[in-house]
Specification:
The protein is of the alpha+beta class. It has 6 helices and 6 strands; from the N terminus they run H-H-H-H-E-E-E-E-E-E-H-H. The strands form 2 sheets. Strands 1, 2, 3 and 4 form a 4-stranded mixed beta sheet that branches. A two-stranded antiparallel sheet has the order 5-6.
């Protein structure tokens, strides 16, 4: 899709009326492309695509084979009789056991004051998060370089509105003035950049890669820019893991003693790294 939901929510009659002919033509092309793609997705069914049969809407019904339907009607009467006979046998068996005092029906509680506990975290329960406060050494702002609506190139001085951010801890890059291993913390800001031509606000968020699917089809790991451990520090942890043969507990102790960095055991080995 050319235009995400964030961009479509900003568009209306007033926005389209404010555009000149060139920008209106550029926006119309993207809207036309998204409309065609949406229609193609709506027209997909088990007969013309790889969509599973269970995804067919219930109000459309299921395709029925006339020959198979005729064969099914003949066997409906016999199967209905067998089902009714089985239910009667089970009912008679249950009544006989109940009369002998073997079957005990569970008592239903009528106490209105008795509340059921909901699944998941309870209201007011203490949460878990990072307790170590690391001040950032530098700020890195990520702005959109092109308007998602009219396609105009956005200048560096365009208005920027930060919407989210995260910290990344990484090993400082070596140069002529700096030697050894030293950690630095960078604060990354992502948000909306306003186009000076059409006034549209283009949103830029941390990118996500393809997810790794397990055997049952669920996504277990997804590469993302939103990570606490930077690429150089992650490479260093991988070296300690597969070259120095250190356990997660040893790596966690190593980072805390020599770098003063406290991380969870799950972050001692990046989830996206697999041995060769």
């Amino acid at each position: 899709m050319k235009l995400p939901n964030h961009d479509l929510k900003q568009m209306g009659d007033a926005y389209l009326d404010s555009l000149d002919m060139d920008r209106l033509r550029a926006v119309s092309k993207k809207l036309l492309t998204d409309l065609k793609e949406s229609r193609e997705r709506l027209d997909q069914n088990p007969q013309n695509s790889s969509v599973p049969p269970g995804s067919r809407p219930a109000y459309l019904g299921m395709p029925v084979d006339k020959a198979a339907e005729a064969d099914t009607d003949e066997g409906d009467s016999s199967s209905a009789k067998q089902k009714k006979t089985k239910l009667n046998d089970e009912e008679n068996s249950a009544q006989s056991l109940d009369g002998a005092g073997i079957v005990d029906q569970p008592e239903k509680s009528n106490d209105p004051n008795k509340s059921k506990r909901k699944a998941g975290k309870q209201l007011g329960a203490p949460g878990y998060g990072r307790t170590q406060v690391i001040p950032p050494h530098r700020l890195e702002v990520h702005c959109a370089t092109q308007c998602t609506a009219c396609g105009e190139i956005l200048p560096s001085e365009a208005p920027f509105f930060a919407k989210t951010g995260f910290y990344v801890i990484d090993i400082k890059e070596h140069n002529d003035q700096h030697w050894g291993v030293e950690l630095e913390c960078t604060l990354h800001h992502y948000g909306e950049t306003e186009c000076c031509g059409c006034g549209h606000q283009s949103l830029l968020m941390p990118s996500q890669g393809d997810g790794y699917e397990s055997a049952d089809g669920t996504i277990t790991t997804r590469l993302s820019e939103w990570r606490l451990i930077g690429p150089r520090l992650a490479s260093f942890i991988v070296f300690l893991t597969y070259r120095m043969r250190l356990s997660r507990a040893r790596i966690q102790e190593f980072l805390q003693v020599w770098f003063g960095l406290r991380v969870a055991p799950g972050q001692s080995i990046p989830a996206s790294v697999k041995p060769l």
